[in-house]
């Protein structure tokens, strides 16, 4: 098993945290992982993306030209990265932030209303965990328990009181993925 994924959005949407959580969860499960962030000088509002590779085999290079999956959280990232998905790959995107959805017909396209679900939960900041749950529901490369253990390593201890709501958000995302079929 090898999954090459790109996560992209604005700084402050949890893009790098999602990638780092996946990387830690992969290590917890004994997988080989690579996490490579890329972001502008802005802390919030600038663009951010990261490449995550999770594999049972050694990873020869973290540099990727085409991805199995991309997770897109904003329109500028969709415009920039839609073309880098492999044929028969997957584009997973946050439905409320994308004005012009992807137009490719050679990949699976899944929209997830994560912002809407986060607002229903009363916690807008868990949008990224809902999206991550949807990704895992569609691509069960790691166990949800490992994601939560990874999140404990990513979140500062002062925010560990938020772990239960993040776990619930992960579950919401997984259930959303089960209710979606690629379009």
Helix content: 25-40%
Going by CATH, the homologous superfamily would be Pyruvate-ferredoxin oxidoreductase, PFOR, domain III
On the 0-100 scale, what is the average pLDDT? 92
Strand order in space, largest sheet: 2-3-1-4-5-6
Kindly identify the CATH topology: Pyruvate-ferredoxin Oxidoreductase, domain 3
Structural class: alpha/beta
Run of helices and strands? EHEEEHEEHHHH
* β-sheet strand percentage: 25-35%
Terminal Cα span = 24 Å
- Helix tally equals 6
The level 1 CATH classification is Alpha Beta
Total E-strand runs? 6
Number of domains: 1
Gyration radius, rounded: 15 Å
Q: Please identify, by name, the CATH architecture.
A: 3-Layer(aba) Sandwich
Stretches with pLDDT under 50, minimum 5 residues? none
Report on the biggest sheet: 6 strands, mixed
What's the overall geometry?
Answer: globular
Could you walk me through the main structural features you see in this protein, from its secondary elements to its overall organization?
This protein has helices at 15-28, 75-81, 114-121, 127-138, 144-154, 163-179; strands at residues 2-10, 32-39, 47-55, 67-72, 85-94, 108-112. With 183 residues, it is an alpha/beta fold. It has six helices and six strands, in the order βαβββαββαααα. The model has no long low-confidence stretch (mean pLDDT 92). The two termini are 24 Å apart. It has one domain (2-179): Pyruvate-ferredoxin Oxidoreductase, domain 3 (3-Layer(aba) Sandwich). It is globular. Helix 1 (15-28) packs across helix 5, helix 3 packs across helix 4 and helix 5 (144-154) runs antiparallel to helix 6 (163-179). It has a six-stranded mixed beta sheet, sandwiched between helices.
């Amino acid at each position: 098993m090898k999954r090459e994924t790109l996560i992209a959005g604005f700084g402050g949407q949890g893009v790098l945290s999602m990638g780092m959580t996946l990387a830690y969860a992969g290590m917890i499960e004994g997988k080989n992982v690579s996490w490579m962030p890329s972001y502008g000088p802005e802390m919030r509002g600038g663009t951010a993306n990261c490449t995550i590779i999770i594999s049972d085999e050694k990873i020869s290079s973290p540099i990727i030209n085409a991805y199995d999956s991309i997770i897109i959280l904003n329109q500028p990232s969709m415009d920039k990265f839609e073309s880098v998905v492999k044929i028969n790959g997957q584009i997973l995107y946050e439905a409320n932030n994308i004005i012009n959805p992807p137009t490719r017909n050679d990949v699976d396209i899944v929209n997830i209303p994560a912002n809407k679900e986060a607002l229903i939960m009363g916690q807008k900041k868990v949008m990224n965990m809902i999206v991550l749950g949807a990704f895992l529901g569609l691509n069960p490369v790691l166990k949800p328990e490992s994601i939560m253990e990874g999140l404990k390593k990513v979140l500062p201890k002062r925010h560990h009181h938020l772990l239960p709501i993040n776990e619930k958000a992960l579950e919401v995302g997984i259930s959303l993925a089960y209710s979606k079929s690629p379009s």
